Amino acid sequence: MTTPGEDPTALDRSNPEAEIALRAEAYRNWGRWGADDVLGTLNFIDETKRAAAARLATTGRVISLSQSFDMNGPQNGWRRRTNPVHTMLDTGTDAERGSQGFPHGIGGADDIIAMPLQCSTQWDGLGHIFDHGMAWNGRRAGDVVTSDGDLVTGIEHAASVIVSRGVLLDLGRHLAPDSAELPDGYAITAADLDACARAQGESSAVGRGDIVLVRTGQLARVCRLGWGEYAGGPAPGLSLATAGWLHGTEIAAIATDTWGFEVRPNEFDVPAFQPLNQVVIPNIGLTVGEMWDLEELGAHCASTGRYEFLLSAPPLPITGAVGSPVNPVAIF
Fold first, then answer.
1. Neighbours of 52 (CB within 10 A)
2. How far is Cα 299 from Cα 306, in angstroms, rounded to an integer?
3. Rounded CA gap, 311 and 330, in Å?
4. Is it the case that residue 190 has pLDDT exceeding 80?
5. What pLDDT, on a 0 to 100 scale, did the predictor assign at position 94?
6. Closest among 168, 314, 325 to 255, alpha carbons compared
7. Which of 37, 162, 186, 239 could lock 8 by a disulfide, CB 3.0 to 4.6 Å apart?
């Protein structure tokens, strides 16, 4: 079997099918954790890994890595993805007017939110992406996700799993020190990832069971200039050629500050859509996070020279969901 290269310039830009298939076959983890597996690379996080990660919390500093969940979010309606709609069911006005029907003067407020599960900071579950009708671990997509939801690899299975050592690779600061922001369309390579880790120092070494966070700086730019095409438009991100790095490092999960994790436009001169997602989710079994806010984290890591931390990022245990909103926290 031909080993895929890590040089994006060597991709056959006219043949995404072949380039995707080459990497899917080379890095496929089907059966690695048994026929019934529902966690994929999250299996790399064990109790020993979590205990070691917990020892990284020495100062008590906590940084939220979540964007806001409100009507001012990034979504533009693509494939019916909207921003959250928050509605009050009971208010202080109702309480003042005594219209709530409660005894002895007690009143309260209550509310509801309606939103796609992947409208802001979120995890992609293993049932989110398929490869030629096949889901994670070699299952038929139609046997996994139906109108009743993800019947096999629903995000609820990860509810008590995603706590581990987090590592920030600040590619924005590393590759563009003047602006700390990569340009849209920049394809991050495996060499870029390794060079960034070396430059940041020992605390950036990436290993088994880690959750890697890649800061491109795109979120900082859109927060300054407006959302524009952040949701689905051009973006810096990982090259398809990093599939081998994502597999070989044995990381548990990865998250970025962009809408789609990989570089956009995708690296082909013919129609293509999210080829790296097609390799890593259904074939490698990698959990992917998107639209994370890594700005405060990046500034803190740069000022302290420390790029590792305890990361707690459990999804909401929404039965049968193929993704989940999340409020990840980095604890130093």
1. 13
2. 11
3. 5
4. yes
5. 94
6. 168
7. 239
Q: Are 133 and 140 in contact (CB under 8 A)?
A: yes
What ranges do the domains of the chain cover? 8-77+117-331, 84-114
Q: Longest C-alpha distance within the chain, in Å? A: 76
- Are residues 125 and 161 in contact, defined by beta-carbon separation less than 8 angstroms? no
Q: Which two tokens stand for residue 160?
A: 């008590």
- At 192, the amino acid letter reads D
pLDDT greater than 70 at residue 217 = yes
pLDDT at position 78 is 87
Task: Provide CATH code, domain 8-77+117-331.
Answer: 3.50.30.50
- Pair type for strands 237-238 and 187-188: parallel
